[in-house]
């Protein structure tokens, strides 16, 4: 496929596992960000404050902004973003958490597509 035939849109998938060692600090930072958001209506502000106070994962999701990841990249404009957070059981020694598995699966799919076609 030539450059003129390819889409200008790219889906960038990022999966992060973070360890929170100071839940109060994360919650406090999220509450400060909510308080500083002058465009947030009062009812939505109250809902956001409740959510981040009850769940540190929600507080983290409120603090992480995909726009921040690409805003300084020249020639790139964020078109759409979605993200979520959840508490998980994490065992770095478990084969379930081997990040290279995704790469291997994608390579196998690409090889199968080339062979088929």
Order of helices and strands: HHHHH
What is the strand tally? Answer: 0
> How would you sum up the global shape?
flat
The major beta sheet can be summarized as: none
- Structure class: mainly alpha
| Number of H- or I-type helical stretches | 5
Count of individual domains: 1
Specify Rg, calculated over alpha carbons. 19 Å
Strand content: under 5%
Task: Give helix % range.
Answer: 40-55%
Task: Report the span from N to C terminus.
Answer: 14 Å
Task: Please provide a written account of the structure.
The chain has 117 residues and is an all-alpha fold. It has one domain. The protein is 49% helix and 0% strand. It is built from five helices and no strands. It has helices at 23-36, 42-54, 56-63, 66-70, 100-116. Helix 1 packs antiparallel against helix 2. It is flat. The protein starts with 22 loop residues before the first helix and ends with a helix.
List keywords for this structure.
117 residues, flat, mainly alpha
Spell out the blueprint of helices and strands:
Elements: H1 23-36, H2 42-54, H3 56-63, H4 66-70, H5 100-116
Helix pairs in contact: 1-2, 1-3, 2-3
Summarize the structure.
This protein is an all-alpha fold. The protein is built from five helices and no strands.
């Amino acid at each position: 496929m030539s450059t003129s035939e390819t889409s200008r849109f790219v889906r960038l998938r990022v999966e992060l596992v973070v360890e929170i060692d100071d839940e109060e600090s994360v919650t406090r930072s999220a509450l400060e960000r909510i308080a500083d958001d002058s465009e947030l209506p009062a009812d939505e502000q109250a809902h956001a404050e409740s959510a981040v106070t009850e769940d540190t994962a929600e507080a983290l999701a409120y603090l992480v902004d995909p726009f921040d990841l690409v805003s300084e990249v020249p020639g790139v404009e964020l078109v759409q973003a979605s993200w979520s957070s959840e508490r998980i059981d994490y065992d770095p020694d478990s084969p379930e958490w081997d990040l290279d598995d995704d790469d291997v699966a994608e390579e196998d799919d690409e090889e199968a597509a080339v062979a088929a076609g």
